[in-house]
Amino acid sequence: MSLVHIDPDGMPSNPAFSQGVRIDGPGSLLVVGGQNGIGPDGAVVSDDVGEQGAQALRNVLAVVEAAGATQADIAKLTIHVVGDADFGALHGAAQEIWGTQRTAVTVVRVAGLGSPDWLIEIEALAQIPASDQAAIAS
After folding, report:
1. What pTM was estimated for this model as a whole?
2. In CATH, what number does 28-137 get?
3. What are 75-88's pLDDT values in tens digits?
């Protein structure tokens, strides 16, 4: 399994994200449902979008790892941010948790999410390498 980053000539190139990511090889597609800034106790971790974003990314990584994949296997993130939440704080948190791992990313500003306390929700697409599927299935 491999991820091939697609950044066509004539389009902006950025070290933080890819314009597209192709998933090659055997394996399964993992769809990670929207993750919020919810801690292990089920409570929102903070009223700060940066802290909620950091926790949401940790939650995405936890689901991916539980499925037998790693951060390097994540092809795409879709980030929903409520209203005029501070995108700079979110970017700082993302750098802290995500580091330099390139991923295709879409950021969408929305009017609201499932709870009025949620400021962010992050979805992901990843590929579970074929060698890990048998271990996870058992």
Report:
1. 0.81
2. 3.30.1330.40
3. 999 999 999 888 88
